[in-house]
Specification:
alpha+beta; 24% strand; 17 strands; four-stranded antiparallel β-sheet
Length: 364
């Protein structure tokens, strides 16, 4: 004999309809910044280009790097422009944050190097010299007798093809001493200290010294990218907010990806609703109008072979236990509902930036 207050079949049909039709399904897509910045551009002999550098005109887009560290890889060699002066990029050491670059002294018609006409410039807010970098001073239009045991003749071509030469000094004290003796002025070019030593012991000429370039260390946002990478994100830059960004699988964050959320709690005890099988057609209508409620999973599985089609409805585990000790009726168990936990919504992480890529999106 079923309890008088046991819910009708119409009630169960309504519950099933609500469960199947009125629960939105969220589709979480991996953030496109995270996807693109995990596939860095390739640039000549430099290989993969990583943050803070990015390649102009190549995917991934500029937001995968810092605006000031743009590389050009269209020519035979990668170049970077610093303070309106172009440098060849020889090597990038991402661990030490060291960039090896060389002054762009393009070759003349006959393969000779063009005479440097201005000092190398550097943006000190973005770079600093390493301890392996020192200055070489070039002296032009020097008088007879200028030669010194620590000066080297450097033949080169002027911009318009006329042949010229300069005297090179890598000893800083000597360069200061000789500063006012030449009428054509001086030009200061940074070189590797190890290469300067090779010039002094005659194992390198000055063309080779210039070809080896010099080292600078990039300083912008030092250390922030490491924390982002360790948290599972990819480093990038929010051009709208003018600040670094950490591109995580769900969306961009300011510095690091959040700690992964714990796995969802075990689903509450399911409620199996079965209709008893009727042995005769005369009893069928009456019996199918009165399904019974089972909250024990094992018993529900056993009942499946003895009953007609059933449905499974989630309920509160506390309600299921009270039903089993007869302190709640079936309709009270169902009316108390069940709990769900929403995910991927954190209002504290929302930031207003019109046009910014720092926006979390989901589809339902």
């Amino acid at each position: 004999m079923l309890p008088k207050n046991f819910p009708s079949a119409h009630f169960f049909s309504t519950i099933i309809f609500l469960l199947s039709s009125h629960f939105p399904v969220s589709i979480l897509l991996e953030d496109f910044h995270h996807v693109e910045c995990n596939f860095p551009a390739l640039c000549d002999d430099l290989g993969k280009i990583e943050y803070p550098f990015w390649v102009d005109g190549h995917k991934p887009a500029g937001y995968c790097g810092h605006p000031a560290y743009k590389l050009d890889c269209w020519g035979s060699k990668a170049t970077i422009e610093i303070m309106n002066q172009k440098y060849f990029v020889i090597n990038i050491d991402y661990e030490a944050h060291i960039l090896t670059i060389a002054v762009d002294l393009y070759h003349g018609f006959f393969g000779d190097m063009v005479c440097p006409e201005r000092n190398a410039t550097m943006n000190w807010s973005l770079f600093e010299y390493t301890s392996n970098t020192q200055n070489a001073t070039l002296f032009y239009e020097c008088p007879p007798g200028f030669e010194h045991p620590e000066t080297w003749d450097f033949p080169c071509f002027k911009k318009y093809g006329d042949q010229d030469h300069a005297y090179v000094v890598v000893n800083t004290s000597l360069a200061t001493e000789l500063l006012c003796r030449c009428g054509g002025g001086t030009v200061v070019i940074p070189v590797l200290a190890t290469a300067a030593h090779g010039l002094m012991n005659h194992s390198l000429d000055f063309h080779q010294v210039l070809g080896e370039g010099f080292e600078v260390k990039w300083t912008s946002e030092e250390g922030e990218c490491k924390g982002c990478a360790e948290s599972g994100g990819g480093c990038g830059y929010n051009w709208c907010l003018n600040q670094p960004s950490c591109y995580c699988p769900d969306k961009p964050y300011s510095t690091t990806c959040p700690t992964p959320k714990p796995p969802p709690r075990i689903a509450p005890t399911p409620t199996a609703l079965y209709s008893p099988k009727s042995s005769t057609s005369e009893d069928k209508d009456e019996e199918t109008e009165h399904p019974f409620l089972v909250t024990d999973t094992n018993m529900a599985n056993q009942s499946a072979s003895r009953c007609g089609p059933g449905v499974v409805v989630p309920v509160l585990a506390t309600s299921a236990r009270r039903f089993e000790n007869h302190s709640l009726h079936a309709n009270e168990v169902l009316s108390r509902g069940f709990e769900v936990e929403w995910i991927n919504v954190d209002k504290t992480e929302c930031r207003a930036c019109i046009g910014s890529e720092d926006v979390s999106t989901s589809s339902t």
